Amino acid sequence: MFSPLAFPDGAIFYDLITYVPPPSHLALYPFDLFREPLAVIAIADGQELENVAFSKRQSANGYAPTMAGRNIRTLYQELEDLRDAYPKVLTHHVLIFDHKPPGENAIPLPEGIKAIPPLEHSKRTTMKTVMCDISSLLLAEMNTLAKSFEAMTSIDSPGQAPSRPGLQSTASWTSDDANPTGRRNSQFAVSTMTRSSSSSGTADRSQVRMSMPPFKSLPFSSSSSTPSARPSTPVRSGLSNPPTTFEDISANGTSLGALSPEQKNGLHLDGAEENIRSANQDKVAVQGFGPGGLNEKWRNKGKGRATIIVGSLYLQAGRWIDALKELIEGATVAKSINDHLWHGKALELIFISLLMLAWAGHEFQVPTVCLSPNEKTSSGLSKAQDAEEADPTQPKHLRNFQVILPDLLERIVGLYSRISGEQLPPFPLSETIIRFSNTLTALHLCGGRLGRESLEIMIYGKYPSKILNTSPRLTITPSRGYINNFLFKAFPSSTPELLTTMDRSIILSGIAAILGIMGYHRKKALVVRELISVLIGGLIEARTRGAAEVGIHPAAGLVALNAINGHGKGAGALDLNEGDIEQGIDAFLGLLCKTYGVVGFENTRSGSGASSSISDLDENVISRINSQSATRFFGFPNVKLNIIRACINLSEALPDFHGVLKFSSDLLRTAGSGVAPGPRRENAAPMISRDEQIRLVTNISKTSSLSQRMGLGHLSAEYWDEFLIRGITLDPLPMTRPPIPHSKNILPGVTTARTSQDVNPFIYNPFLRTVDNSAVAQTLVADEAATFRIVIQNPFDIDLEIDSIKLYTEGADFDSSVISTVIGPYRTQILKIQGTPRSAGSLKITGAVIRVLGCRERRFPIFSQPWAPDQELKVKGIGLGTLEQNQILPPPGPPLKPDSIDLSVIEAQPIVLIKSTSLPQSSIMILEGERQTFSVTLHNASATPTDLLLFSFQDSTQGALQTALANRDATPAELHEYEWLLAKRQALRLHKIDDSKRYIAPGSTATFDFEILGKPGLTSGTIQIDYAHLGMPQSEIKNQFFTRQICLDLTVTVNASVELSRVDILPIQANVPKPIWDRVGSGRTKEFVASNDHCLLLMDLRNVWPSDMQVCLKVGKDITIEEHILPGNTNRVVIPVPAIYIEEPHAYIPALNPARQRQFVVSSSKITPAMERGNREAFWYREKMLEKISGTWKTLSGPSRQGTIQLRGIRLTPRMIEAIKIDEVGIDISVENPQSEQAQDLENDVFVDEFVQVKVQITNRTNQPVYPTVRIMPSLRNRPVIVALDFTRKFAWNGTLQQTLPLLNAKSSTELRIGATALCRGEFEISASVEETQLWKMPADSSKSESNGHGQTEDEEQETIRQRERADTQTMMDAVLGARERRIWHSRRPCIVAVRDRPESDEE
């Protein structure tokens, strides 16, 4: 009857289900023939066939030599159990997957067990061939099923009568209570069960097919995860018809017509009741006898319904043409007798048959029974013509079918909804409307054209990926508005008795799915919101019922129910499988929340499928914050909160731990502000009350702890504030610990300079510079702990309990300590956490890994700057499309940028401490000029050796000197003095040691000696020790190195010793007295010492210290004088000092600081050139004199002390300079008597009227030639100036007293002689002066000719070039010292001539 050979193009579509259909669905059989399963397929794993024993009952399975054989017997026994449990199923099979029978001694498989080999061995036997074998058996059994329906005299419609009080309305198809051994599959029928192949049959099939009252439900399969029976359909009231025939009137006053179909057919009757029913069925009605009577109508109704059922079987078997014939006949009969339900059923099945034929590519003609009276007229023809004009390429049969499709579906729904004696229950009616709406939606998505694409959507459900937006599609038939109105006819009534919770949920889910496909997201959200309300009520009822059945109070909590039901995720309360919650509930509730604009954790671009490590990246966090900010401005806040509360209630009712955690955190996230508040600026308070916040956080913590105890450690909530960390900073290291960076280039030179004795303070010392705090603050040392400050915000009104906090770093290895804390409500709190780098390299702190109580441990970036999104005042779009666009686009307002801390980790460095010092309490008392030595002991307290030790010194006098050096008004002489005090009079210095001793082994000590000098103003000093571990030669350092510093602060008290109170220099007109030479111990006599070679230095020395002092002054190497000074006394010391000659007394004053050294320095003070010359002259004569003079002191009583006298307090006046200087041109005057061979010095005895010669010797001590003009000036001695020059009658001379001499070369001398005669007795003074006739300049031609004519060495040539490059030096000199002028020199000692009369003896 159902042989596939009659229609080879047919197909069978299997709907594989893993659950037992609920009784409310089984009650619709045979009106909906697909409600009851027709085949049971059990599956087994062939991999375990030879390894694991499926059952321990050996006796029940019989003997088998191998494990596989015993397991196959076990599977066969289980198959027999399935046949007993589900007798009404047409065929039962066991499929063993991945089982390849061995080639030899193959185990024969019993009937009903089929093996499917692995994919690589699937050659002859495949999954397709196995399903074909199952289909052939199924078609054979359907033949018997069809015959049984044809033999039935009457077939009831679903939902005819209400339930009888006291009887159960549920039915079971798993076993036949009337005949428990009865089976439908004839090939496995037992001997006690016989079945006739005739059309009438020997047994009433209605007794076999109708549902019986339930006993304990057997599992659908042997799997332990199979859910138990679902709740039954509630009792239905009303919507029933009174009995109209004798069959509807029960015998003995019992009204069977008042029962529902499942109750009437599934009622467990005893023998008497069965006889009454048989009698009623065989009884002939007396009224309406003959054609057109009631009996004829009853028979036609039964025949027509049987024809429709047979047509439905043909449709399921793939014989669509035969089904179309049967259904047309049945529809015609049902229409003729006004059987509206079955008429609509026949039209629905015809519609499905036409769809299948169109999908298979067969041409057909739309039956006339499908056409409404209006479509048979010209209006139907006009619609067909319009469709042909719109798409001429569409086949005619599809076009005709497309034209009548909307009206046909509406007619079917109208027939189902017609109020009559029989009325379809709400569930199948709504389900049919949803199926029809799905068909119309597929037609609408394909532009209103019925073709291959739309048929694929209708048959397979393959919807296009592009979802419709809100733009209208008015030109497409059927329109979205029409489909929407048609779909909402399926919306269930609010009366709870008409539909079970499960049926109501199925209807609402179907409506929501189609609304989503059509782009009605907000309508879909409304339906989903209703669905959640239905599910919550059903879940609470099921939870209460399940708790009561096992003796647990309904409020016992989630754990008790799950522990009893054996489910790990809270799926037991609703009879869901383990995977249902993960695969369905999350996406379902998430879609609802997304539609309403709930601020969830998942980012729209990354999605919820992203791993936790990827979702915590900075770019993903920023994208998530921007998306959440856009979502906050979408929708109504109160509606969002209500939606999330409903989701929480649903998750608690399931119970679904993951849902409770997720939506509780989403509620806190949505209620929060989502901003990073600044100080007293943004309002970050949440929108919900404090009590609700406490309830949510408590719920999260409890649910999380329950999950941990049940072994569900992966379940946790997502923290609701992305701005948890508002800053991370590094605490400053201890003063002796921070590593200070230095460049590689400074190391060799600094090491050489700092280890020498004479340290020039003006050489750049990088170790004394101000430490760059920013660089030091970013450097860590390996294996040394550092302290960080973490700023955490809590904008909610509840305490935030944090289980663990640790730093998250990138780069070098880093160990962070883990701390826990509690953050108070609505505050920002600072925490301290320690971390230790383990290796050298770059280190970057990008955030912290934090686990809040009940939440997932995740990484939080650092957002230190305040941030708040800007809301657009002008709304430019509405709907979900605008929300998705706003989530992708960057938000308005300031950009969000996470912060990070870049650190550098260096190798392990030593830690050196000052262990001891020889100074008590690091303090010392010292006298001015005294030097003392003390020692300092250093201890290396680490396991790293110290191979670099550099010492630097600072004292209280350096600050004042540096300030004076910075004074722009200071003269060059003053600056030179300040620099000399810095360079030559250092208060602290290191005793010279060997470089090999600059090493401290781990755990050992080293002692170093230092020297301190007493200086005025010295009150404190600091010894700075820079140390490091290089671990390599200095030449191998690549970029930079780091040192640490320790400092020893000293307290110094400097007392006065010997003060220089007054200084004066006196010229000597005569020879130095011999007693002075005897006192200074030189032993010189007046014969060897000329008076013009020395001057007298007078110094008043005062002893300030309360002890006797012995002062020793030295001038050069030969002159030494000692003086004993009592305490408080002042002694004057007179000491001869050699006169000083300076080649260039007007040279510029040099600078000791290399940074100030210039080739030519212009004075910064505005003074005259004469004053500038005087200052320079005083400077150079003072420096020259101080080079020759030194003084020391020592105490004669009390503690032995000694030191030096500070003589730099001497200042030279112009008079003192004249006394000590030697002129550039020397003038020596003498008188020679021709009669005497020896010249007389100083005093010459000359006789009256005798001729003598006055000799003037001129010596040029400079390096340049001089044009001299000599003037000889005789005068009377010991007379006033006016009288002294009146000597013309008393002294006569030969020639002129003023003569111009030729050019006097450098370093040479010349003489001038004139004759003179004294005319009277007396004493005369003869002095002379030399004046430059003209300035000497080096001729350019002569220098050039000399260079060309005479060979010059390379050095001389370089000197000539250098002088030429400085051609404008003289110009600069003239600007400071004034233009060069002709100089004049006077004789320092006049020649005294004593004239007397010659003795008479001589005259004679």
Rg from Cα:
62 Å
End-to-end CA span:
197 Å
Main sheet specs: 6 strands, mixed
Output mean pLDDT: 78
Number of helices, where a helix is a run of at least 4 consecutive DSSP H or I residues: 37
> Judging from the principal axes of the Cα atoms, what is the shape?
rod-shaped
Portion in beta strands: 15-25%
| Share in helix | 25-40%
Domain Trs120/TRAPPC9 first Ig-like: 725-886
Region (Disordered): 154-266, 1335-1370
Protein name: Hypercellular protein HypA
Biased composition (Low complexity): 210-237
Please give a structural write-up:
Among the domains are: 4-239, no CATH class; 294-405, no CATH class; 425-518, no CATH class; 740-776 and 909-1055, Immunoglobulin-like, CATH 2.60.40.10; 1058-1220, no CATH class; 1225-1341 and 1368-1403, Sandwich (Immunoglobulin-like), CATH 2.60.40. A hairpin with a 6-residue loop joins strand 28 and strand 29. It is α+β, with helices and mostly antiparallel strands and 1404 residues long. It starts with 22 loop residues before the first helix and ends with a helix. It is 34% helix and 20% strand. The model is unreliable at 162-171, 176-290, 555-582, 603-610, 749-759 and 1343-1351 (pLDDT under 50). Helix 13 (426-445) runs antiparallel to helix 15 (480-487). Strands 6, 8, 10, 12, 13 and 14 form a six-stranded mixed β-sheet that branches. Strands 31, 33, 35, 37, 38 and 39 form a six-stranded mixed β-sheet that branches. The protein is rod-shaped, with a radius of gyration of 62 Å. Residues 166-209 have a biased composition (Polar residues). It is found in: Golgi apparatus.
